[in-house]
Design a protein that fits this description.
heterodimer; A: 116 residues; mainly beta; seven-stranded mixed β-sheet; four-stranded antiparallel β-sheet; globular; B: 113 residues; six-stranded mixed β-sheet; five-stranded antiparallel β-sheet
Chain lengths: 116, 113
């Protein structure tokens, strides 16, 4: 079946530094990828929609200059958290659209970001 | 704005009993619904989906019911097992796949031995 690989699974960084998270579709081409953020005991909140070869579409309230998204190929999207602060600590999850699977959405395993 | 929500934040059931997890949605344009299971520290795992032209769909030990009149859907798990313990989310989108999903608030299912 469709597999989405997300790396790293865990990362700890110092406040003020930047962190890059990768999301790869391993056996299919994903023209669209989604990035979610999830705080403890809360739901997944969509941050942005990433389309290959074009600028990402951000949800209301998400700072595009802080959360940089690049979708340069059909199998890779990256999320860079710039100038990270402790309040950015969260679980980040990507999802890639594969129209070949039943529901079309395949999720990565998530990245636990801790900013100290 | 439009949202998808759940009635019960925590559901405790005895092993072997049936579980029912509910979800209310408010977007009348929603026509595709998915139930996901999420274990701690992992991404969501697809369980079952249903389109708006159906009111019931069955899988292995799971059944999803959709009531468009009251904008409500439910997930029924038969013979609940300890491995079913997780957080369950409903999600909706306004077209059949490819568009962004809106997730409900989630229900923590705890299976007691």
């Amino acid at each position: 079946g469709a597999v989405v690989s997300q790396h790293p699974s865990r990362v700890i960084c110092k406040s003020g530094t930047s962190v890059k998270i990768e999301c790869r579709s391993l056996d299919f081409q994903a023209t669209t990828m989604f990035w979610y953020r999830q705080f403890p005991k809360q739901s997944l909140m969509l941050m942005a929609t990433s389309n290959e070869g074009s600028k990402a579409t951000y949800e209301q309230g998400v700072e595009k200059d802080k959360f940089l998204i690049n979708h340069a190929s059909l199998t890779l999207s990256t999320l860079t958290v710039t100038s990270a602060h402790p309040e950015d600590s969260s679980f980040y999850i990507c999802s890639a659209v594969d129209r070949g699977v039943s529901d079309g959405y395949t999720f990565g395993s998530g990245t636990r970001l801790t900013v100290v | 704005g439009e949202s998808v929500g759940l009635h019960l934040p925590t559901l405790s059931v005895q092993e072997g009993d049936n579980s029912i997890i509910n979800c209310a949605y408010s977007n009348s344009a929603s026509d595709y619904f998915i139930w996901y299971k999420q274990e701690s520290g992992k991404g969501p795992q697809f369980i079952i989906d249903i389109r708006s032209n159906m009111d019931k769909r069955q899988g292995q030990r799971v059944t999803v019911l959709l009531n468009k009149t009251v904008k409500h859907l439910s997930l029924q798990i038969a013979a609940t097992q300890p491995g079913d313990s997780a957080v369950y989310f409903c999600a909706e989108t306004s077209t059949g796949g490819g568009n962004k999903l809106t997730f409900g608030t989630g229900t923590q299912l705890k299976v007691e031995l």
